[in-house]
């Protein structure tokens, strides 16, 4: 299953915030969208699933398995969200429902997309919880009773419950400390590899990206300024933006060879 984005334009309140962005995520590939705050990377990710504000105008092409997504109705896109394309957001505390147990929230996308009964969905939810290494009693808890890392594991379980072909991860580790961040990256990397799915990873941190993606697209002010293998971007960046991202790379996760 592949994603191809061509000449994507996004305007909000008459202001162009994404300008001609093009990239592809082939089958089983791991691609990063990276840039500083305001570069348009998260808006691009939201556009893929029709999650932009109502006043946003989108032009260009977003093709998922040769099916054009731009211009499709929300009802059509809702059949793709979770089932064919899953998404994990930056802050699980706001993405999760505080009034529902973790088990119910993991089971909900399973019931919607696979039309399973309550008991079958609950059993599958338990399986998904084990896949993301949640403790056995987590299913009966509420989000506020879990740690930040555990909440993000719940969000990942929900995104993967429908067995999508593509996982979009939008800054999924930004709110976590470095140790938990590394654990979540390892977990996500393993799950993506085991399922043979594609990954689109959005981040502002080149060090984080180097842990999980093989290729990257660098954005600045809504436009692509550089793209290529992550290893090449780290060792020989050509744009000022990428050079700044290399300088700012989190030292505890990655350090250029020869530096102390």
UniProtKB/TrEMBL annotation:
Similarity annotation: Belongs to the ABC transporter superfamily.
SMART domains, A to Z: AAA
Cross-referenced Pfam families: ABC_tran (PF00005)
Subcellular location: Cell membrane
PROSITE patterns: ABC_TRANSPORTER_1 (PS00211), ABC_TRANSPORTER_2 (PS50893)
CDD domains assigned to the protein according to its UniProt record, in alphabetical order: ABC_NikE_OppD_transporters
Gene Ontology MF annotations: ATP binding; ATP hydrolysis activity
UniProt xrefs under InterPro entries: AAA+_ATPase, ABC_Ni/Peptide_Import, ABC_transporter-like_ATP-bd, ABC_transporter-like_CS, P-loop_NTPase
GO cellular component: plasma membrane
Gene3D superfamilies (UniProt xref): P-loop containing nucleotide triphosphate hydrolases
Designated name of the protein: ABC transporter ATP-binding protein
Membrane topology: Peripheral membrane protein
Naturally occurring in which organism (per UniProt): Microbacterium radiodurans
Keyword Mitochondrion: no
Keyword tags: ATP-binding, Cell membrane, Membrane, Nucleotide-binding, Transport
Presence of the UniProt keyword Transport in the record: yes
Annotated ABC transporter domain residues: 3-246
């Amino acid at each position: 299953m592949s994603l191809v984005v061509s000449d994507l334009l996004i305007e909000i309140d008459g202001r162009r915030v994404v300008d001609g962005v093009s990239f592809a995520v082939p089958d089983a590939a791991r691609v990063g969208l990276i840039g500083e705050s305001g570069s348009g990377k998260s808006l691009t990710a939201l556009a893929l699933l029709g999650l932009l504000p109502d006043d946003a105008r989108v032009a260009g092409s977003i093709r998922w398995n040769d099916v054009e997504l731009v211009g499709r109705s929300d009802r059509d896109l809702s059949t793709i969200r979770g089932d064919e394309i899953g998404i994990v957001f930056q802050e699980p505390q706001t993405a999760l429902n505080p009034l529902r147990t973790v088990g119910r929230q993991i089971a909900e996308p399973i019931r919607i997309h696979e039309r399973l009964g309550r008991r079958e969905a609950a059993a599958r939810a338990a399986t998904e919880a084990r896949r993301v290494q949640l403790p056995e009693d987590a299913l009966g808890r509420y989000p506020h009773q879990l740690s930040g890392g555990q909440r993000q594991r719940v969000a990942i379980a929900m995104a993967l419950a429908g067995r999508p072909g593509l996982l979009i991860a939008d800054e999924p580790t930004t709110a976590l400390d470095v140790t938990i961040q590394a654990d979540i990256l390892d977990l996500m990397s393993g799950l993506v590899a085991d399922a043979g799915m594609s990954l689109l990873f959005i981040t502002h941190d080149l060090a984080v990206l180097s842990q999980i993606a093989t290729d990257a697209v660098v954005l600045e002010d809504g436009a692509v300024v550089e793209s290529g293998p992550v290893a090449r971007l780290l060792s020989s960046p050509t744009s000022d933006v990428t050079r700044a991202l290399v300088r700012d790379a989190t030292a505890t996760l990655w350090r250029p060879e020869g530096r102390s």
